[in-house]
Amino acid sequence: MFFLLHMQIFRHLPIYKFYDKLECKAYQESNKDFCLILDKKINLQREELSLKYDLTKKITKGARRTLDAFFNSMLELLSNKSFEEITVNELCQQSNYPRATFYNYFDDKYDLLNYCWYSLAQQIHLEEYRDLDSEESLYIFFDRMYDLIAAHQDTIQHILKFNSGENLLLSYFRIYMNTQMQEIFHQCSCRERYKIPYEIIAEHYCNTILLILEWSFLKKNGCSKVQAHEYLKYLLKSL
């Protein structure tokens, strides 16, 4: 699992949900062979890993209540235990919905976690600035992430008591952040000015943003948004 976290060979869909089903584990063969096998498994199961509920359609009031209930239940449980320990039964009990309802919307708890990241993305309105210059998009993205974390700092601190280090929750968050940054750069025409692949630039931006947010909040340095901006500009000025 440590190998998967640091290679980040797949950034758009959750690979951990079927990792235990693989016949060959990372420690049983070379990294190259393992990556090839894992990549093949991912391609075969791509359709299975998408959310059951079509979020591109207009969401009814009933569906919204259900989705919100499971979203809030996940956050509540994460404040009391690690993501690995959470079960579908607990999510259903917490939300007061039967298992059948859960599986009408999600394949499993990993699917629900993907929906949680999607919901957070909606709160910071990522779709509004994907056509802007990459640098401008970057600072808007950072500002909204900063504001979102600041507004929910107490909840985040509770969650991190049980979900820290190389926990799957934080790994998923890093993957999600990287995916968003890749999409911003992919849709930006200014990516042509870079002399190296834009994917590398996007990952560098993502890692830098996470570094500043971690310094500001997780390490409790009390860094203001203005200070955080200055740090971000300094670390990215070579680009």
TrEMBL record:
- Organism superkingdom: Bacteria
Q: Per the record's keyword annotation, is DNA-binding included, yes or no?
A: yes
Annotated ranges, domain HTH tetR-type: 64-124
Alphabetical list of Gene3D superfamilies matching this protein: Tetracycline Repressor, domain 2
Q: Which residues form a coiled coil?
A: none
Q: Which Pfam families match?
A: TetR_N
Where's DNA bound on this chain? 87-106
Alphabetized UniProt keyword annotations: DNA-binding
Example GO molecular function term? DNA binding
**Name assigned to this protein:** HTH tetR-type domain-containing protein
Organism taxonomic ancestry = Bacteria, Bacillati, Bacillota, Clostridia, Eubacteriales
